[in-house]
Amino acid sequence: MKNLTTGTQAKLVLFTFSLCYFTITAATFSSLGVVLPSMVSELDWDWTIAGLGFTCLGIACGPSSYLPSITIRKWGLPATLIIGLTILIAGFILLFKTQTPASYFSGCILLGIGYSFVGTVPGTYVITHFFKKHSTAFGIYYTVGGIGGIVGPITVWLATDILGSWRFHWLVMLTAITIAVSLILITFLFTDTKRLKLPPKQEKPDPIKKGVYTTEQEWTFKSAVRTPQYLLLLATYSSCLFVMISVNSFSVSHIKEIGISFAQASALLSAVALCNAISRILGGFIGEYIDPKKMLLVALLLSASGMFTLSFAQSLPTIGYFSFAIGCGYGLTFLSCTVLLVRYFGTGPYLQLYSLMNVGATIASAAPLICGYIRDITDSFVPAFLMIGSIPIIIFISVIFMRPPRLDQQTSEQVPSNSFIKNKLVASDANK
């Protein structure tokens, strides 16, 4: 950025990437579940097919999450975002024209891959380079993205009731994501992108924040990925996606089945997104001064209680707690896992660790298929919701005993320092 200060650069980057996350959230996971009842009715599909499409979205998003970590290092962020936008445009067009399950599945797969290239992998990677207060910046970024979850169901309602068809929802989202990615690319014209070619600077722990653990050790990807703590964070991250994907997929359909109108059911899903957004911004600030592990424990309990409420509540006032618990539980779990990743292993290996975490979380993509299949054979979503709601309880018990990881002396001596890595990268750039 030729004429702007570093602080202004950071704010612009955070704003544009947050807007992009807002848009892709509204366009995919938060709105597909609201579109499904209309698609099932018009195209005469069963719920297993409907759920399988959502599963395709999640599965495609999982393994492809590691690809941006490769393209960012080889070709840079602008090229990565352009690749993602191209894939998303193809996916939205397929869904707009879909008439068969094959085109529906293909469109969902393309949206999942495109999500990886413009979503949280590049977004959180940029934040680690431009901000010292990672928790606060993550909180803002995730909050804006969470608000997208409020807008997603609304755009479906507008497309269905005002524009005349659920198909127009995909055209609206295509336009919105094109604008969002274009703004990021324009921002890069004024941003010092050279800093993104180097590993993010590892900040020393703030002595004022004595209650918040931050590693002082130099972790590598290989040393971090072998720790039980990383595996538990991966399992926790997967559990929150298991819950949220189930909610986004079929909560509206379930709530309609117990006698609540489509408009009210959609409003409850939007309320989930609102609570999700609020919890992220509050959690981001709190996470600077309170151990994120404590937030994570609260979040897991909220997620479990929210699923149990969704299963048994029969009235609108009672089921309102579901929106609060699931929204706050998901938001705090998502944020806490990301912050703990930085706190425990530093910013050096973050990009690869976070990308791999998304790949591992692909298992959560089975949730819609499980829910749809159980619904078809039992005529109820309740058994599936109860089963998925028990997962956070199991994770909660494990997280209680989790302690910060430590490198042994031998491993520490083998790990290159950040300064060494930076010097090697600078030397490599100079020789090109």
Summarize the entry for a quick read:
Helices cover 78% and strands 0% of the residues. The protein is mainly α and 432 residues long. The protein has a single domain (6-408), classed as Growth Hormone, Chain: A (Up-down Bundle), CATH 1.20.1250.
CATH architecture: Up-down Bundle
| Envelope shape | globular
Q: Give the uncertain stretches in residue-range form.
A: 409-432
Structure summary, number of beta strands: 0
CATH class: Mainly Alpha
Overview of this structure, please?
The protein contains 20 helices and no strands. The C terminus is likely disordered. It is mainly alpha-helical. It has a single domain, classed as MFS general substrate transporter like domains (Growth Hormone, Chain: A, Up-down Bundle).
Features:
Growth Hormone, Chain: A, 432 residues, mainly alpha, 0% strand
Set out the fold topology.
Elements: H1 6-27, H2 29-43, H3 47-64, H4 67-75, H5 77-97, H6 101-118, H7 120-130, H8 134-163, H9 167-188, H10 221-225, H11 228-257, H12 262-286, H13 292-312, H14 316-345, H15 350-360, H16 366-378, H17 382-389, H18 391-400, H19 409-414, H20 418-431
Helix pairs in contact: 1-2, 1-7, 1-8, 1-9, 2-3, 2-8, 2-11, 3-6, 3-15, 3-16, 4-5, 5-6, 5-9, 6-7, 7-8, 7-15, 8-9, 8-12, 8-14, 11-12, 11-13, 11-14, 11-16, 11-17, 11-18, 12-14, 13-14, 13-17, 13-18, 16-17
